[in-house]
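Each field is set out underneath.
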Amino acid sequence: MNLTEAFFSNPFDSVRITPVRLAAFAQDALTKLGTETGEPFPALVASLTPPLVQLHAEVGSLDTSLQRQKSKTGATDQFIINLGEAVRAAEPSIAAALGGYESTGYKQFFPAGTREYSKTSKKNVPVLTTRLVNMCTEFSAQLPAPLVAQLSGFALQWKALDEAQSTSRKDTREDRTDRSAARQAVERQLLKAIHTVAALYPGDMEKGKEFFDFGLLRASRYASLQKKADPAITPQ
């Protein structure tokens, strides 16, 4: 980094600094700046407060996005449980309809047993649901119609869940890194505050640390402070 960049670049313009950590850094700085009553500190506080309020609101929306993603992840886990239970319940009917547990048809349904369905990974679910569709189509004449409809329907259910989860992950990634108008306004006011304090105390790094804890912008530092604030919190 050259001297021009060191003095005039925006260090907050980085995808590594999430909105949550930027808001934490700004809130900490705002509190510390607010302890000084003489100008220019009240003016700095007044300029930083409105965009920070908006950024906090956006961070709340991000938390909602994360919870929504977790909810969809839970739905896919439940799908696998339902799939395993449905296949186990259908196994006797399939065996009876196709000529027993040693029949070719039964083994095509369950080449690795029913456990393959209940203990599958999410990555393997499309393989299993496609197999069910193919087998139900091939043996539709022998199998009960309600059973064919139930087992064939898992493929479409999984596709819908997988698409919803993929969309949720994409939205959450964009929320985490998007530099919204509120974030950019907070960044500008922070830069103004930093340069103002630097001008008041030129070359005094220790004085600067009294107002600005840059460690809060790092994931490890932020997570450490969160755990101290609430030991029950598990940082994401």
Q: What stands out?
A: The chain has one domain: 16-229. Residues 229-236 have pLDDT under 50 and may be disordered. Residues 49 and 61 are 19 Å apart (CA to CA). Residues 16-229 form one domain.
